[in-house]
């Protein structure tokens, strides 16, 4: 079905407070996913690392499984088939090799089959001050490819959390036809308070698309504090649904026709131009950037 004729659908964001044990987190996620279905959801998104929130490397790798052996993924596939919904697990931490993990998103169809996989490209390696520091690359290997998938209502672009700070990825997904882009996340409280709403609205406005961002929220068992505030933002940049900090479900009606309307009124996707940036210090003929769009 093309985006010109696709009917509206109901999207649900599952907000979680993931703990240390995958079995406990699975039980909590399943309960919330069932609640989302009861609220009429056709498409359901969970947050980043829905299966485990663990900073200790040894403890993390003792609990991780490879994709083909992961019990949470098997359960989520069975649940999607039972509920007859598109179930998008924002990400699972999975064992990719003996010493490296993958932060991998799964879009599961109503038949229980995996429609798309996406490995988080940008690693969250930062120092926030006051002793708060993160080195995601110490445990996780980055993905290398952007991913889009076809839903009955239009094309879906997949991203995860820290990807949000790299607008070129979102422009590439929109140029590839994405009408909806997902941002399952575990934003810290500090960065979330400062940037979460602004960045999500900016990505929606820049690309004339819906942004669906399911979040982790609250103080976790490992003492990490996440911002919450799961958001659905429409192509005009308006927030149409928002969660708080507690676990729960946020729903909204998504109208693909609005993407078409906004992109027609502000056709920035068509107006982007390739450009080069010259460095005056290196001489008039030196170019140090030779791609991009404005």
Report on the structure:
The chain is an alpha+beta fold. It has one domain: Nitrilase/N-carbamoyl-D-aminoacid amidohydrolase (4-Layer Sandwich), CATH 3.60.110. The chain is 27% helix and 31% strand. The protein has a six-stranded mixed sheet with strand order 5-4-3-2-1-16. Strands 8-9-10-11-14-15 form a six-stranded mixed sheet, with helices on one face. α1 packs parallel to α3. The C terminus is likely disordered.
The rounded distance between the terminal residues' Cα atoms is 31 Å
Shape: globular
Beta percentage is: 25-35%
How many structural domains can be distinguished in the coordinates? Answer: 1
Identify the strand order in the major beta sheet. 5-4-3-2-1-16
**Biggest sheet, open or closed, and with what strands and sense?**
6 strands, mixed
**Helix count from the secondary structure assignment:** 7
Q: List low-confidence stretches.
A: 290-294
Enter the CATH topology name: Nitrilase/N-carbamoyl-D-aminoacid amidohydrolase
Outline the fold blueprint.
Elements: E1 9-15, H1 22-38, E2 43-45, H2 57-63, H3 71-83, E3 86-97, E4 100-108, E5 114-119, E6 125-129, E7 132-135, E8 147-151, E9 154-158, H4 167-175, E10 178-182, H5 189-207, E11 210-213, E12 217-219, E13 225-227, E14 231-233, E15 239-242, E16 248-254, H6 256-265, H7 268-271, E17 277-278, E18 287-289
Parallel strand pairs: 1-2, 2-3, 9-10, 10-11
Antiparallel strand pairs: 1-16, 3-4, 4-5, 6-7, 8-9, 11-14, 12-13, 14-15, 17-18
Helix pairs in contact: 1-3
């Amino acid at each position: 079905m093309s985006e010109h004729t696709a009917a509206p659908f109901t999207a649900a964001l599952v907000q979680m407070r993931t703990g240390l044990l995958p079995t406990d987190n699975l039980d909590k996620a399943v309960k919330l996913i069932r609640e989302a279905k009861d609220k009429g959801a056709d498409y359901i998104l969970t947050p980043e690392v829905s299966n485990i929130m663990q900073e200790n490397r040894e403890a993390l790798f003792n609990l991780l499984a490879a994709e083909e052996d992961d019990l949470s993924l098997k359960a989520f596939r069975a649940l999607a088939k039972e509920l007859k919904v598109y179930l998008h697990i924002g990400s699972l931490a999975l064992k990719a090799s003996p010493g490296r993990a993958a932060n991998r998103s799964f879009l599961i169809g109503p038949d229980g089959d995996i429609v798309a996989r996406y490995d988080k490209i940008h690693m969250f390696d930062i120092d926030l001050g006051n002793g708060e520091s993160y080195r995601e690359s110490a445990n996780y290997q980055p993905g290398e490819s952007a991913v889009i998938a076809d839903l009955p209502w239009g094309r879906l672009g997949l991203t995860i959390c820290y990807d949000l700070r790299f607008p070129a990825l979102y422009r590439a997904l929109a140029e590839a036809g994405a009408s909806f882009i997902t941002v399952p996340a575990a934003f810290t409280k500090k960065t979330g308070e400062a940037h979460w709403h602004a960045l999500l609205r900016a990505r929606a406005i820049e690309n004339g698309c819906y942004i669906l961002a399911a979040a982790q929220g609250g103080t976790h068992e490992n003492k990490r504090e996440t911002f919450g505030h799961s958001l659905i933002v429409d192509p005009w940049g308006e927030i149409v649904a928002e969660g708080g900090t507690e676990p729960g479900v946020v729903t909204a009606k998504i109208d693909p026709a609005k993407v078409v309307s906004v992109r027609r009124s502000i056709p920035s996707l068509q107006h982007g131009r390739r450009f080069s940036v010259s460095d005056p210090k290196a001489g008039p003929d030196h170019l140090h950037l030779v791609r991009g769009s404005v």
